[in-house]
Amino acid sequence: MSGTSAGSAAVPCRFAHYFVICGIDTETGLEPDELAGIGAELSTDHHLVVSENFEQSPLKRTFKSKVLARYPENVEWNPFDQDAVNMLCMPKGLSFRTQADQREPQFHSFIITKEDGSRTYGFVHTFYEEVTSPQICSAMQTLYQMHNAEQTNAASSSSSSSSTGSYDSSRDTLYVSKALCLITPMPFMHACRRFLAQMHSAVIAATAPPLPLESYVYNILYEVPLPALGRSLKFHGIYEPIVCQRPGPGELPLADFPLAEAFSLLGVENLVQVFTCTLLEMQILLYSQDYQRLMTVAEGITTLLFPFQWQHVYVPILPASLLHFLDAPVPYLMGLQSKEGTDRSKLELPQEVQHQPGLRSIFTACLFCRWCHKATTAQRRKDRHRQQTEHLTLDNDLKEKYMQEARSLGKNLRQPKLSDLSPAVIAQTNWKFVEGLLKECRMKTKRMLVEKMGREAVELGHGEASITGLEENTLIASLCDLLERIWSHGLQVKQGKSALWSHLLHYQSHVKASTKNPSLLVAPRFLERRKSDSSIAMPSLRVSLIQDMRHIQSMSEIKTDVGRARAWIRLSLEKKLLSQHLKQLLSRQALTKKLYKRYAFLRCEEEKEQFLFHLLSLNAVDYFCFTSVFTTIMIPYRVVIIPIKKLSNAMTTSNPWVCVSGELGDSGIMQIPKNVLEMTFDCQNLGKLTTVQLGHDNAGLLAKWLVDCVMVRNEITGHTYRFPCGRWLGKGVDDGSLERVLIGELVLPSGEDDSARACRTPPLQRSPSQGRRIKLNSAQIQEGIGEAVNNIIKHFHKPEKERGSLTVLLCGENSLVAALEQFFHHGFKSARLFQKTVFVWDFVEKAVAYMESADQVGDLQETTEAMKMTCQSLCHYFNAINSTSRNIGKDGKFQLLVCLGARDRLLPQWLPLLVECPVILQMYEDTAMLRDPSTLNTLISVLEALHDFSITLEASLVKGINL
Description:
The protein is built from 30 helices and 26 strands. By secondary structure, the chain is α+β, with helices and mostly antiparallel strands. Strands 2, 5, 6, 7, 8 and 9 form a six-stranded antiparallel beta sheet that branches. A five-stranded antiparallel beta sheet has the order 21-17-23-24-26, with no helix packed on it. A hairpin with a 5-residue loop joins strand 7 and strand 8. The radius of gyration is 41 Å and the shape is elongated.
């Protein structure tokens, strides 16, 4: 749909352009209308079934109508389309009656959409007049005699039941339908209806009107102007005056078709459903016995669209001869007349329509995304099959030729004439539609990759820098919509509101029927094993399409099939299995053939392969589109603790515990059973995992524990995080820590090749460990501090959804804490004194002890008030950390002091106090960076750059600290 245009072309000033008479041509006689004689009905399985009427009684058959007269011959700005007017004046051709049948006049309207999108309106008054031609009466008599003879010879045939009524020219009067029509540029329905009714009354009146009928026709065509904007117009009809009104510039557009009638016919709920499908640009077919009701509802829907316009195929009354329009692979809004006497009580409508048997109207709106259309005769079936087969097996040159022709249709594809959509053109258009879906898939996947890879991808020529600002969630939602449209294309019968989920359910049923254990159909994916890991590793996670479906089906939070399909897409994308899963889904060709027509996108082998290849490219980047959206679901997690066997006890006699934290919360402290290094637990979605707290109570004889790392896996998404440790947990070893906070890194799946690794998004950083304390020179240390601070600043300048974990930047590898540790270790006299390792926290502890003692004896009285407050704050923070009930060890305490000092903007103020303490002379060499005033001032100015940002610390870092 598109918005209305203010700069539309000027409308011609005449009220009406043509007066047309359609009916029987006595010179050509009776010509059976094979196409208009087709009956169309909806079967209970939602197929459109068409049938002939040649075995019906001749009075029930349809015959070709002709345009008998029109005036004027042609209007320059609105050329007369004889075929279209004839078909729409009498959509089912001529019909005959006798004096025993009802012959009430009927009124209906129609629309002809031109190639430029403008619309011409037609208003038709159909009545029955007596047939005076002996040749026509004789021909009808002959048809009846032939029909009766056939019925006699096949008395047992069920088709005899369709013969109702009879005709005998000697005793019966024969009547035939005739149509009076006005063609106008604007939909003045009530005025045209009154004029045509008066015209008919004048034709059958015993007394002639005051003026010849031609005078009244001339008057309305040439002398009655269009009403001025915002004004009413009153003109003379034949017997009574007629009034019409045209809205002004500031008013709503002209809507002469009553909206109240549209609501009455469908009901509010059904009309809202139809309107929703219109906004979604679906294929909509309106179904009724009455032509005018089709027009009323169709115009009502398009009126409600204001200020938007329906830009696709719009045929409120579809002539029977153009039923092949329903095969068009484009959005449309059409109306189809139903057969008289249809029993709608047995009609099962799809889920899109909530059928209300209690509705007062006989109007039924059937909403389908695709239609199955059976051919009308054996010959037509054969011809169409041949045409489609020829097109689908074209060589590349001819295919390209047809594609060029389809492209050249341009506006006609969006606003086609009634004669445009032949079966051949539909086939050509379908190839364009398939090509468009493939092109859209290529563009969307490229855009998603560029958004993820950022400027590095731009430098490689893969896009523009402006694309990097697009929100990931919007792009993924757009991909979900594209996949639904691909799976909706060429469906035999739509079942449910999601074509993709319906296909998945069919696949699931087929798998269950073929094996008792569907999960065994797919080989398991094993996680990558690192050389440093011991023999205890994360067990393999069996992954299959069916298993991922079961995860989605178990989520009670998702209520609809569309929601389940989108969740399954997000989960598959996050697991980097979307292309693989869809390839597996389409591998069952028999199922695909059963569900989809030959021309469907999913049955075009070359396009399907390219489509899967484009989706495969998304494996180059990491998505958390499932984890970040379904934040309230319960997820099973698996934890494996990997000790360093060759250096320590693999097990411990103490009581170990673990707490897993993520961006959305933490699991709480969970006790690990003794002598067990693996456990599972269920927890509400933690989001991306950030930290693991690991500790024990130091009980038993073997309380010391040297842990290499902790592995945690989300059992639904398969994401596995490694939390390196490489340090002791126990009293009297290392820094005496019984608890460590480990920082996680996402483990690469073993299936990723080198190219994917080279262009994937940066990995998360690691936990701090003693192994990182490589001796660096002063320049390297200063560079590391600057880089750590810059990373934090860049973190806050990113959009919130793209920031990642601040904990990693504060405490991970190459983080602020790690850089400051290098700074404090430079020139540090860390030789073993009395067989005991000295830590930076020992220096801080002695410095604080000096400050507290100096304050008590009055040595700080000479200092400024600001210096006193800074000194008191350092002592307060030190004592709060040192007295915590947590056994986090000396390195853990120093990390906490740095994090709290950065959060509360105190760190730059504490550094001069530490330098001024005499204890620095005992614990640091003269060449230490901490004792260089110039270097210290530089460090202070760098740290002060963090004061512009509000740093929030993760709960796992500050747990038990009341500051």
